UniProtKB/TrEMBL annotation:
Membrane topology per record: Multi-pass membrane protein
GO cellular component labels: membrane
Official protein name in the record: Tryptophan-rich sensory protein
Compartment(s) of residence: Membrane
Biological process according to GO: tetrapyrrole metabolic process
Organism: Pseudorhizobium banfieldiae
Transmembrane residue ranges: 9-28, 48-66, 78-96, 102-123, 130-153
Gene designation: tspO
Tagged with keyword tRNA-binding: no
UniProt xrefs under InterPro entries: TspO/MBR-related_sf, TspO_MBR
UniProtKB keywords: Membrane, Transmembrane, Transmembrane helix
Similarity comment: family membership: Belongs to the TspO/BZRP family.
Length: 154
């Protein structure tokens, strides 16, 4: 069992790193003129919603990761958590950086699979971590549909 201070530092570190890397990825891969010129589906959310949604999701993802790290740092769950983070941080450069909705799909589909795998692997071991990923799974499902729609429309 970890002492309370070490647990708190683990949560703080996970949240700071994940939110920080998420912000860096967002700032480094701004949509720009290319994205503005694309035809988008009717259900495209307004641009201002992405920042607050992703910040909230990154906090939830980080808490789930910290919980998993504290419980089983060498587990398959932790490996899947790291895999989904890598895919998460690859999506913006793939879609916006390379200006490729198709490459975005190549990243977002395995990302969604990894998120669902984390939920499944966590369900019996740590139901809280599993539930923390449910909003993330819902948003990435929506993002996958949005990405696919943009690819089809353009």
């Amino acid at each position: 069992m970890f002492p309370p201070m070490k647990k708190a530092l683990t949560y703080i570190l996970f949240i700071a790193v994940i939110v920080g890397l998420g912000a860096l990825s967002g700032v480094s891969n701004m949509p720009g003129e290319w994205y503005q010129s694309l035809e988008k589906p009717f259900f495209q959310p307004p641009p201002w919603i992405f920042g607050p949604v992703w910040t909230t999701l990154y906090v939830l993802i980080a808490i789930g990761g910290a919980r998993t790290w504290l419980q089983a740092p060498a587990s398959g769950r932790m490996q899947v958590w790291f895999m989904q983070m890598i895919l998460n941080f690859l999506w913006s450069p793939a879609f916006f950086g390379y200006q490729s909705p198709i490459l975005g799909l190549v990243v977002v589909i395995p990302l969604l699979v990894a998120i669902l795998a984390f939920i499944r692997l966590s369900w019996n071991a740590d139901r809280v971590s599993a539930w923390l990923f449910v909003p993330y799974a819902a948003w990435v499902t929506f993002a996958t549909l949005l990405n696919l729609s943009i690819a089809v429309l353009n």
